[in-house]
Amino acid sequence: MNRMLIVAALAAATTPALGADVGVSIHVGEPGFYGRIDIANFPPPQLVYPEPVVIQPVPVGVVRQPIYLHVPPGHAKNWRKHCGKYNACGQPVYFLRDDWYSKVYVPRYREARHDGQGHDKKRGKDKGHRED
Secondary structure of the chain in the HEC alphabet? Predict the structure, then answer.
C-alpha cells in the first residue's frame, strides 16, 4: 500500500498542473496589446508626454531615432522600472495615448491589414482563389 502511495505521489509531482501551459497571444492592432508601434502611415499620434523619455544616456556620437510605444499608464509613469521589458531603456520613447491607439490606430491597422491579406483590390478577387 505504501508503495502504491509513493508511485501515485511521484506521478502527481511529475504531471504538470492543468492550465499551467496556457498561452495567450495578443498582437499589434488588438485591444490589450502593449509594445512598439509603427506609425509610418498613420495620422500624427496623440502622446502622453510632448518630449521623448530616455532612461539611459545615449553614447556620444550615437544618434537614436525615437520609437513609439503603447504601454499601460503605470509603465509610462515609472518608465525607469519598466523600460527593460520593452528593450527600450537607452532609446528615446514617445508614449502613445491609449485612446489614440484604440480609436485611431487599431481601426486603421485592421483595415489596412484586411485589405492587404485577403482581397486583391485591383481585380476585386480573393487571393488564392481561381475563377474558372
Answer: CHHHHHHHHHHHHHCCCCCCCCCCCCCCCCCCCCEEECCCCCCCCCECCCCCECCCCCCCCCCCCCEEEECCHHHHHCHHHHHHHHCCCCCCEEEECHHHHHHHHHHHHHHHHHHHHCCECCCCECCCCCCC
Tens-place pLDDT, residues 33-85 = 899 999 888 889 999 999 999 998 878 888 889 999 999 989 999 999 999 99
Task: Please write down the long-range contacts of 22-30, taking CB distance under 8 Å and 24 or more positions apart.
Answer: 28/109, 29/105, 29/106, 29/109, 29/110, 29/113, 30/106
Instruction: For 2-32, write each residue's pLDDT tens digit.
Output: 554 444 444 444 444 444 445 556 788 777 8
Locus of grid cell 487599431:
106
